[in-house]
Specification:
Helix content of chain B: over 70%
Organism (chain A): Paracoccus laeviglucosivorans
Low-confidence stretches of chain B: none
Protein name (chain A): Heme exporter protein A
Number of domains of chain A: 1
Distance between the termini of chain B: 23 Å
CATH topology of chain A: Rossmann fold
Keywords (chain A): ATP-binding, Cytochrome c-type biogenesis, Membrane, Nucleotide-binding, Translocase, Transport
Mean pLDDT of chain A: 84
Shape of chain B: elongated
GO molecular function (chain A): ATP binding; ATP hydrolysis activity; transmembrane transporter activity
Number of strands of chain B: 0
Oligomer: heterotrimer
Mean pLDDT of chain B: 90
Order of helices and strands of chain B: HHHHHHHHHH
InterPro entries (chain A): AAA+_ATPase (IPR003593), ABC_transporter-like_ATP-bd (IPR003439), ABC_transporter-like_CS (IPR017871), ABC_transptr_haem_export_CcmA (IPR005895), P-loop_NTPase (IPR027417)
Largest sheet of chain A: 5 strands, parallel
Chains: A alpha/beta, B mainly alpha, C mainly alpha
Chain lengths: 207, 218, 241
């Protein structure tokens, strides 16, 4: 029983197909690294898998998903602990202590988020994943603005998550030192069909 | 759901939350009107119900774009949309938070401004009752407008253009109830309509607003 | 063959292209015919020559409301069946409907001045039309502000649904608020309120004319929108290649 499965998935950005024919499964304890040049549609694919937009074709199976995009979803006026408490309550996840210690935030727990550095904010955004209590993590460039020590911290957190039967799909360019498979999107880039002069299909004239 | 409500209330009262701006705007508006129409008490007391209702409506409009815009910018809205909480529920809670931080203070503050505008004595209870019944609809419709314009540049102006026509029935019945109170006529019929509109809006508009949010998130 | 076949852009273009000249010609004949015939009718014993503005006022008011209804139906079809042509028809109808509303308001003001002695009166019917005009403006502005075409179609459809409910609600709220001067429905079926057949038949002709004019304008605008969409789709494909 896989935690997340995509079958023959095609996603679109701005009305144009970005990638198509993507199929994979993600089992418990497994991590999958998403690779591909800029603009191929990694973010779009992750947002589609998270259910934020509908796929153009194909199917997604899996619902125990936590998504972490480019923005961390933090409120500058709230403290680190308050931010985590909020997401824990919304997702009905575990208490925040484990998340704080995993990303080395315990010292900063009472500091308001607007007083954090970019790297500290990112660590808080990643710690949020633990309090969601979700099995599948969809991570979009999680290591942006993290220093080497923090990246190692994050890799440890990820290993812990996988060890507890979780799974992760990560769009990243740096080496996390995980035992992970790589899914390169380059071969799935949507082909450009030559425009037909007299399109016959229903809405083909617009696609 | 409670967590979301508490967070929104907390954000509204902390620094930069803009709590109280709507009240200040309401005060300024009701100060400006006598400068425009003259200080004569009889005239002011005749138009006071309308001014108070229009003022409350505009003050409410002022803070609408904050309902979703900030959450959209910092990514919280994406995360809320993937949370177990249904988006319809999130919309309703955020509208409730908007009402508690904007609508309710306006209701409490309105009688003071009524004194300044020579609102006739018998109209005061009806002013408060009509605002209590009407302002939740203003917040909910405002949340709908905010959901429609959340990702747009120059969304603020468009928001007013979309939301203000939707406020017309509430304004008509609300101000009519106060006017009837002022001349000792029966304010019950407009109040009943006002309450009916508010209840219908609270029951149905969250679905439209959540649909608009989903479109704007993809 | 099902009726939805006409939602195929290609088929729509072919058929609308074929019927457009006929619709346009019919619109010209009926509009001019109705107004000229109306001009030749005798003067009303109470209203004098001012009554003749009815041949512009009533048909435009009719199409102002029917235009919104058509947008509502087209929006529902888009939301349910996702036919792009349907969304584009709603988009195309909005400015035409807004202009019809404006014509009804302006001719009403011109008519009201000699009749009621005022250019504008906060009469329920006039006010309702003003509110309808505001809804048209909001709808058009929303189409103009959303960049992604499908999102724009979705959002405007939702607005059209909610707006329809509130436009209707406002109509009754305004009735409650002010009883008004406006005469009842000119073509009411109730006995006693009937208008003379001298005016009725030319009015029917100009109503038909305005309907055909509306149809012709919406067809032209929809065809333009379809070509625009096709063009931008081709350009997007070109730019990516």
């Amino acid at each position: 029983m896989s935690l997340l499965a995509a079958r023959d998935l095609a996603v679109a950005r701005g009305g144009l197909r970005a990638v198509e024919g993507v199929s994979f499964t993600l089992d418990a304890g497994q991590a999958l690294i998403l690779r591909g040049p800029n603009g191929i549609g990694k973010t779009t694919l992750l947002r589609t898998l998270a259910g934020l937009q509908a796929p153009v074709a194909g199917e997604v199976a899996g619902d125990d998903i936590a998504y972490a995009g480019h923005a961390d979803g933090l409120k500058p006026a709230l403290t680190v602990a308050e931010n985590l408490h909020f997401w824990s309550a919304i997702f009905g996840g575990p208490p925040i202590d484990a998340a704080l210690s995993a990303m080395n935030l315990t010292e900063l727990a009472r500091r308001p988020a607007h007083a954090l550095s970019a790297g500290q904010k990112r660590r808080l955004g990643l710690a949020r994943l633990i309090v969601t209590g979700r099995k599948v993590w969809l991570l979009d460039e999680p290591t942006v603005s993290l220093d080497a020590a923090s990246v190692a911290l994050f890799a440890d957190m990820l290993r812990g998550h996988l060890g507890q039967g979780g799974a992760a799909l990560i769009a990243t360019h740096i080496e996390l030192g995980l035992d992970a498979q790589v899914l390169d999107l380059t071969p799935y880039r949507a082909t450009i069909r030559p425009p037909t002069s007299r399109p016959a299909g229903f809405n083909e004239a617009f696609a | 759901m409670k967590a979301l409500l508490i967070r929104d209330l907390r954000l509204a009262v902390r620094a930069g939350g803009g709590f109280g701006l709507a009240l200040a705007f309401f005060l300024i508006l009701c100060t400006l009107v006598p400068f425009g129409v003259g200080p004569e008490g009889g005239q002011l007391s005749r138009i006071a119900p309308g001014i108070l209702w229009v003022g409350a409506l505009l003050a409410c409009l002022l803070s609408l774009d904050r309902i979703f815009a900030l959450d959209h910018e910092d990514g919280s809205l994406d995360l809320l949309a993937t949370a177990p909480l249904p988006l319809e529920g999130a919309v309703a809670i955020k509208a409730l938070a908007h009402w508690l931080t904007t609508g309710l203070p306006l209701v409490i503050f309105a009688p003071v401004l009524g004194l300044m505008l020579h609102l006739p004595g018998p109209a005061f209870p009806w002013l408060v009752v009509s605002l209590i019944l009407g302002t939740p609809a203003l917040s909910m419709l405002g949340a709908f407008g905010a959901a429609m314009t959340v990702g747009l540049r120059r969304g603020g102006l468009l928001l007013s253009l979309l939301v203000l026509p939707l406020y017309i029935p509430t304004l008509i019945f609300g101000a009519e109830a106060v006017r009837r109170g002022a001349i000792a006529a029966d304010p019950a019929p407009p109040l009943v309509f006002l309450a009916a509109i508010t209840l219908a809006v609270l029951a149905l508009v969250p679905f439209a607003a959540a649909a608009a949010l989903r479109v704007n998130l993809r | 063959m099902s009726i939805w076949e006409y939602a195929n852009p290609v088929k729509f273009m072919r058929i609308s292209g074929a019927i457009l000249p006929w619709v346009a010609a019919g619109a010209a004949v009926c509009c001019i015919g109705g107004v000229v015939w109306g001009f030749l009718t005798p003067l009303d014993y109470r209203q004098g020559a001012t009554v003749k503005i009815i041949f512009l006022h009533v048909p435009s008011a009719l199409m102002a409301i029917n235009g919104w209804l058509m947008m509502l139906v087209a929006s529902l079809i888009w939301l349910i069946r996702r036919h792009h042509v349907s969304a584009l028809v709603a988009k195309a109808a909005a400015p035409v409907g807004a202009v019809m509303t404006l014509i009804a308001l302006v001719t009403g003001a011109i008519w009201g001045q000699p009749m009621w002695g005022t250019w504008w009166e906060w009469d329920p019917r006039l006010t309702s039309f003003l509110i309808l005009f505001l809804f048209y403006l909001g709808y058009i502005a929303l189409w103009a502000s959303v960049e992604d075409a499908d999102s724009a179609a979705d959002l405007t459809s939702v607005l059209c649904l909610v707006g329809s409910v509130f436009a209707l609600l406002s109509r009754y709220a305004v009735n409650f608020w002010n009883q008004g001067l406006h005469q009842g429905a000119s073509l009411s079926v109730a006995p006693g309120e009937r208008m003379s057949s001298v005016y009725k038949y030319p009015l029917y002709v100009s109503m038909l004319g305005f309907f055909l004019l509306f149809l012709a304008l919406v067809l032209v605008r929809t065809r333009t929108e379809i070509r625009l969409r096709r063009l931008s789709a081709l350009l997007a494909r070109e730019n990516r290649a």
